[in-house]
Amino acid sequence: MTEEIKINKPKKLSWREKYKSKVFSSDDALKVVKSGDKIVIQPGCAAPMELIRALVRKKDELMDVILYHILIVGDLPYTKPGMEKHFRHKAFFIGGNTRKAVNEGRAEFIPIYLSEVTMLFKNGVIVPDIALINVSPPDEHGYCSYGIEVGNIKTPTEKSKIIIAQINDQMPRGLGNSFIHLNKIDFIVEHSEPLMELPQVDPNASE
What we know:
Blueprint: H1 15-22, H2 26-29, E1 38-41, H3 49-57, E2 65-69, E3 87-91, H4 99-103, E4 107-109, H5 117-122, E5 130-135, E6 143-145, H6 154-158, E7 162-167, E8 179-181, E9 187-190
Parallel strand pairs: 1-2, 1-5, 2-3, 3-4, 5-7, 7-9
Antiparallel strand pairs: 6-8
């Protein structure tokens, strides 16, 4: 009679159990950034402003960090005079908050059709070291939504070596192909913050 052998397999952790081990303050999460890194940032009104602020607070430890994104609404402190040795913004679309930096040579403009931006990442022309994103809290299956900005961030994020996510309970959930699972996220920063808004202007006014 052969003796039955029982093999104890290690318990597979659920995403909820993994979640806690990934939560850091913004300053601690951004410690992973090093000089020369290429960083892609979620654009538009969905920009992860707390992660951006933490990145800039770390400026004295960094040199030649390259930041890729299209138009971001709001203040971009890494484009200010004196930041050029620490950060270099490469813009796929220039907004009013970056135009002066580009004109003065502190940032660069990459002329490209908006529909082709993600192809640079998909085809490996640009390989990001880090993605900074702003997403909704996870659903019961562990999926976070990119919310109001998906088109120019989902593919670059998936191609990034490290993903840092600002989990923001003020980010609405969008449906469709607009999710990232917590298992894909390396660092979580829980930070509730209103989304940026475009200012209302008189369409008939001239500059």
